[in-house]
Write a structure and sequence with these properties.
Layout (H helix, E strand, L loop, with lengths): L2 H5 L10 H6 L8 H10 L4 E7 L5 E7 L3 H10 L1 E4 H4 L10 E6 L5 E2 L6 E9 L10 H16 L2 E14 L24 H15 L2 E11 L13 E9 L2 E2 H21 L3 E3 L15 E7 L2 E2 L10 H21 L5 H4 L12 E3 L6 E3 L10 H4 L16 E3 L8 H17 L1 H10 L22 H10 L2 H4 L6 H12 L6 H6 L3 H13 L6
Parallel strand pairs: 1-6, 14-15
Antiparallel strand pairs: 1-2, 3-4, 4-6, 5-6, 7-9, 7-10, 7-11, 7-12, 8-9, 12-13, 12-16, 15-16
């Protein structure tokens, strides 16, 4: 088959978006007329409107479809919701109504209910304007700020690490402690469940890069919670492909919804909690970033070295890093993961490929192309026009993050770094390390990340203008995040735990870790 004929089959693969197959269009081109045809052809019984609230979890509103005319009205005008319940502390109950309006490009047929056509929605005010205080709209404004001031677009991808917890049945071929990385069956028992998650996420979001078993594996979880105690836990990871950062938040939140629902369907618990057990791997939510111009990655020079813009981005991330934990590490157990001498960072620094640093520059196919030709000597032709794929990765966030606010904060860091060239390049120069960070001569002089939610709240308040500038983060949102962090009441957490006898320390650590297993 000729190359152009293969390209014509873009919507005919098993994991293609089912709505793209039905309409013959990419999701970005969906119109109301397309969706009404889907409703009739697939005999859709209800529309489900999803929207992300301040707690970071996806919400839903179910709307039965009684006629095409009614569906057309709902798709055109949306519905109203109680904003004071969704954004407690920000919206007063006396003036609480908001509109939620479906974003057509996010439409999907629910993998858990084939009679439901689902959407991600945007929040609008009673005046019909995008609500200034909602996390999705804050992220959109931050992304637009980068475009307007630098002419660049910021792309992002997330790594969702999580534990699957339950009764895996056969105990043969056990995984050794901390040796689960890229394990295959029969040692890893969760492969079929992970396959189902991948199928649905790929069909709905279209941008999964890969999935694999991660390091963590617990033969037995010890907990006061019945849903955890005595169960087995395997850690897995799903990594995505880069998308415009304003879309990344919805993709990650929707994917967590799919992961939890698939796990629940099979009688398992999926948790994105930062930590399950002391001495075992924690779960992060690393974020990779790439600057784009005219749809081309501009993170490297022609020689394959990091570009100046990439180093300015790194400088911005390092400048913002101490306060970014306020959005990326929002529960006490986050700070049981961010401890020295493990892969999670504790100091503000960066390096190539070094997994103990805050910002890592991973391999990016910059110095070698057509690698398969080296292995497959029978392959004579070479792939041309290979895109640059270099990213930088910030490794502090975890699954407790308010995803949209975290990505908005990262966008502000990137914009600051690009705008303040001299200062950001100087920061990048001073925070670079080559060796293992813990044996570096620079270790003591590098800035530290917070050690508790309380410290993160303090830093956020001190640095709030970094986020409120240009009107991107409303002051009320900063105040509410501060309250959420302070409500963890974990000041001096590390000292308090160290003062306990060993047995009590373990018990209290588990209580802290397991109290928020369904966080965000």
């Amino acid at each position: 088959m000729k190359k152009e004929k293969i390209a014509d089959q873009q919507f005919n693969l098993p994991l293609s978006n089912p709505l793209s197959i039905l309409t013959g269009k990419e999701s970005k081109d969906f119109t109301r007329e397309d969706l009404l045809k889907v409703i009739v052809e697939k005999q859709i019984e209800r529309l489900t409107f999803h929207h992300t609230a301040l707690d970071g979890k996806i919400k839903e509103l179910k709307i039965p479809v009684s006629s095409v005319k009614q569906a057309e009205l709902v798709l055109s005008e949306g519905e109203r919701v109680d904003g004071s319940s969704l954004f407690r502390g920000i919206i007063d109950p006396g003036s609480s109504d908001l509109y939620i309006i479906p974003d057509y490009k996010t439409a999907f047929i629910s993998p858990f209910d084939s009679t439901s056509l689902n959407f991600i929605c945007r929040y609008l005010t009673p005046a019909g304007e995008l609500a200034q205080f909602t996390p999705d709209n804050i992220l959109a404004r931050a992304s637009n700020l980068i475009k307007n001031t630098s002419g660049l677009n910021l792309y992002a991808l997330g790594e969702l690490e999580f534990f699957l917890i339950g009764d895996f049945g056969n105990d043969d071929f056990p995984l050794p402690k901390q040796r689960g990385y890229h394990a295959s069956s029969p040692f890893a028992k969760s492969g079929m469940i992970l396959n189902e998650m991948l199928k649905y996420i790929t069909q709905l979001c279209g941008n999964v890069k890969y999935a694999h078993q991660e390091v963590g594996c617990l033969d037995t979880v010890f907990s006061d919670l019945q849903e955890l105690d005595g169960k087995r836990a395997e850690q897995v990871e799903i990594e995505f492909l880069p998308t415009p950062i304003e879309d990344t938040g919805d993709i990650l939140v929707l994917s967590k919804w799919i992961i939890r629902n698939v796990a629940y369907k099979h009688g398992f618990v999926a948790t994105f909690a930062p930590k399950l057990e002391i001495g075992h791997a924690g779960s992060g939510m690393h974020v990779h970033l790439a600057l784009m111009k005219n749809n081309k990655n501009v993170m490297t020079t022609e020689k394959g070295e990091l570009s100046e813009n990439a180093r300015r981005l790194i400088g911005g991330l390092c400048r913002y890093a101490p306060s970014l934990t306020a959005f990326g590490n929002m529960v006490s157990s986050s700070y049981l993961r961010l401890v020295p001498h493990q892969e999670a960072p504790t100091k503000v620094c960066w390096s190539e490929m070094n997994r103990s640093t805050l910002v890592r520059v991973p391999l990016g196919w910059t110095n070698a192309k057509n690698l398969s030709n080296i292995v497959n000597t029978q392959q004579k032709t070479k792939l041309t026009d290979i895109p640059v794929r270099q990213t930088v990765e910030i490794r502090s966030p975890d699954g407790s993050a308010q995803t949209h606010l975290l990505l908005a904060g990262i966008s502000m860091a990137a914009e600051w770094g690009l705008r303040n060239k001299k200062e950001s390049l100087e920061i990048a120069k001073n925070t670079y390390v080559r060796e293992n960070i813990h044996s570096s001569d620079k270790y003591k002089e590098l800035a530290e990340l917070a050690t508790s939610c309380a410290e993160s709240a303090d830093i956020l308040v001190k640095e709030r203008e970094l986020y409120q500038r240009e009107g991107i983060f409303p002051p009320l949102v900063i105040d509410e995040v501060k309250k959420i962090l302070q409500n963890e009441t974990d000041r001096n957490l590390e000292k308090r735990l160290k003062a306990l006898p060993e047995e009590e320390k373990i018990k209290e650590s588990r209580r802290i870790m397991h109290s928020k297993i369904h966080t965000h």
